[in-house]
Amino acid sequence: MLHWLALFVPVQSAGTAQPVLPLVRAHSHNDYRHPRPLFDALDQGFCNVEADVFLRDGELLVAHEEDEIQPERTLEALYLEPLLERVRQNGGKVYPAESPFTLLIDVKSEAEPTWRALRLVLERYREMLTVFEPTGVRRGAVTVLISGNRAASLMLSETSRLAGLDGRFPDVDLGLNPSVMPLLSDNWTRYFTWSGRGPLPAREREQLWSIVQKAHSAGYLVRFWSAPDTPAAWELLLDAGVDLINTDNLEGLARFLREKERSVATP
C-alpha cells in the first residue's frame, strides 16, 4: 500500500521534552468546528484534517452550513497560512520528522467555480503542496484532496494540479490511477447498520473486509464518515485495515491510538 499506511512516527515537539506521535491514520472530521481549528488537531498529532468550504463573493469560506458562514473564517486564514508558517519553521515539513499530512477540502458550493477559485488560491502555497502530474506525484509537505462537490472532469483535464481527488467506493471500478485519486471515502450508513453496540453482524463484517480489500488491491486508501465514533468502532476499523479513522473526538482517538501503539510495543 501507499506510504500513508504507517501508523505512528515519533517526533519531538518544539519546546517540550515529551515526544509527540503524529498519527497518520487519525482524521479530524469537520476540523473547523473545534475551538482552535487545525491547531487542536496538530497538538494531538493528527496527520489529516478536513475543512468544508463555500465560495462566496470570490472568497473560500470555511463552514458546515451556509448560515454559519463568517467572512473572516477563510480557508487561507484557518488552514493554508498557518500550515505554510509551520512548514517553513520545520524545514519543509508539518511535523519535525517526516510524516504525511493531508488537508481534505470538502466543497459545499458549486463544483467548477469553487475549484477555479481554489486553484488560484493554492498557487500561493505551491512551495508546500503536493503536485499531481501526468507522470506521477511530486510529494510536498501538505497534500490537498478535494471531496464533496468535486469538479472531477475539469480537474482531470488539467495536466498539473495542486490537489487530488477523494473518490467514493464505486469509483474503484473507474480504474483511475491512485496518484490521481489516492483516497476513497464513503458514508458508513450507506453500507452498514451497525451503530457501535454489540457485535458487528457477520454479513456486515464480510462486506467491510471486502470493501477494504478491493480498494487496497487497486492501491487506494479507505475512509468512512458517519461511522460510530467510539473505541469499539475504532478497533473494528483498524482491524479491517481502514486507513483513515474519522473522528470528532480528537483527544479520545489520539489516546486510543497511542494505547494501541504501546500495546504493540510491549512484549
Q: Please, could you describe this protein's structure?
A:
- This protein has 267 residues and is α/β, with parallel strands linked by helices.
- It has one domain: TIM Barrel, CATH 3.20.20.190.
- The chain is built from 7 helices and 13 strands.
- Strand 9, helix 4 and strand 10 form a beta-alpha-beta unit.
- The longest helix is centred in the C-terminal third of the chain and has 16 residues.
- The protein starts with 10 loop residues before the first strand and ends with a helix.
TL;DR of this structure?
The protein is α/β, with parallel strands linked by helices and 267 residues long. The chain is 30% helix and 22% strand.
Helix run count = 7
Kindly provide the name of the CATH class: Alpha Beta
Structural class: alpha/beta
Shape: globular
Instruction: Detail the poorly predicted runs.
Output: 1-19
Strand content: 15-25%
State the order of secondary-structure elements, H for helix, E for strand.
EEEHEEHEHEEEHEEHEHEH
Under CATH, the topology is which?
TIM Barrel
Termini separation: 26 Å
CATH superfamily: Phosphatidylinositol (PI) phosphodiesterase
Provide the helix percentage: 25-40%
**How many discrete domains?**
1
Q: Based on the structure given, which CATH architecture is correct? A: Alpha-Beta Barrel
Radius of gyration: 18 Å
- What value does the average pLDDT take? 92
- What profile does the largest beta sheet have? 9 strands, mixed
Number of strands: 13
